[in-house]
Design brief:
Length: 163
């Protein structure tokens, strides 16, 4: 049972860390870089990136962060671990909820605008996308997933002291 407990905690930590990296990369590199481009480039590049990110690697981390953290909570019910794990789970659920309620609708609306070469008013499409809202909520995801990762790292440290 010890190996299963540690494996769940490691999987939660790894998937959460991977997602913190994804959100952080968007926050400090991808969105600022795209923000400096013209409307056609922004719309086309964002649409392409959003289509590409829906893949097994991303989905494993995205869903895995919540599921593995929940499993770690269930398997590691020790009172010395549970507060850290529950806090990490709450943050991972928050990240999941923000993604589904804010980012997915914004991303889908931008993709639904169609081929940038056929859009008559690219500036209006970009404005409706609302880059500032997207980035603000992505900062919430970045900070929340990074905090969850830190909590899980601490839980691993505590777990190492418990047998």
């Amino acid at each position: 049972m010890y190996a299963l407990r540690v494996t769940a905690l490691l999987a939660a930590t790894m998937t959460t860390g991977l997602m913190a990296g994804v959100y952080g990369l968007y926050q400090h590199t991808i969105m600022p870089g795209l923000g400096r481009t013209d409307d056609r480039t922004f719309v086309g590049a964002f649409q392409a990136a959003d289509r590409a990110i829906i893949n097994p690697w991303f989905l494993t981390g995205f869903v895995g962060a919540v599921l593995c953290t929940a499993a770690a909570c269930l398997l590691n019910a020790d009172r010395r671990l549970l507060p850290w794990l529950l806090a990490a789970l709450a943050l991972n659920v928050l990240v999941f909820a923000v993604t589904v309620t804010v980012h997915v609708p914004l991303n889908d609306a931008l993709k639904a605008a169609g081929d940038p070469g056929r859009i008559a008013d690219l500036a209006a499409v970009r404005e409706r996308f609302d880059e500032a809202r997207w980035a603000t909520w992505n900062l919430v995801r970045t900070l929340s997933s990074t905090a969850a990762f830190g909590l899980l790292c601490w839980a691993l440290t505590v777990r190492g002291r418990i047998r």
